[in-house]
Amino acid sequence: MEVNGRRVTWREPETAGPGVPVMFAHCSMAHSGLWKPMLAELGPERRAVSVDMPAHGGSEPPPEGMGLQRHALDACEALAERMVAAHGGPIHLVGLSLGGAVLGRLALARPELARSLTQIEPVWFFLLGAQGETGAAAAETEFSRTLLAKVEAGDPDGAAEFFVDSWGAPGGYESLGPEGRAYAARCVEHLAKDMDMVHGQPPGQLTIEEIARMRPPLTLIGGAESPASAGKVLDVIEGAVAGARRVTIPGAGHLSPVTHWPEVLAVLRESFEAAETGA
Prior knowledge:
The protein has 279 residues and is an alpha/beta fold. The chain has a single domain (2-128, 202-277), classed as Alpha/Beta hydrolase fold, catalytic domain (Rossmann fold). It has helices spanning 36-42, 68-87, 98-109, 126-130, 134-152, 156-167, 177-192, 195-199, 208-211, 228-240, 256-259, 261-277; strands at residues 2-3, 6-7, 10-11, 19-25, 46-51, 91-96, 114-120, 218-223, 245-249. A hairpin with a 2-residue loop joins β1 and β2. α2 packs across α3 (98-109) and α5 packs antiparallel against α6. It is globular and about 50 Å long.
């Protein structure tokens, strides 16, 4: 489909069971294929759709002058509206990292679209400093500055390596192979332009008071081996949203839906059932 004059793509299996649909949104440097095992497992039960975030997979970059997350929010909202209309009711939202941040914004802006929300280590690092997590906030601000400096110096490959080795693929940047490394370098330039939405306080940035008013049932998932700052963000959200469910995946890092997807899927199924039955 087209949103803000830009192509937005997604994938879904041919099978689509009758249950409440679910929309997945991936992390930075990935694409909709990150969720393929879960799409295959869920297909017989419910429609399962995985969106390509802007400048990732088959989706085009944001329009000039529009940040990546703001365009991603519009794209995910448009796709969610289509899914809700087709199903006749709200859907489950599941996002990892960048995807978790964007779908969290969607659930807050359009709660009527969301039957439930699962955030897997969303990149809401802007919450840390305001909530007294000054050490974690400073570490993430330094990460942002280093990434931007590499991009501005004309070194997207170095920026992508720095990003992936800090947060990404099991085996690190070298494990991606030549095509994967080239893809990461293309993605990182768009991500670097949007760092203020991750770490800063641009106009319209979410506040902890807004997040505390989250209406859809919320599940928070983290990896036991993830960077400390990711866990601190989950701490802040859990402390703000009454009734939020928190699950830690043993042995997992930031990419738990890749490395430990059966365990994550089990948590998702429990969350879907609780939201659908009111348990």
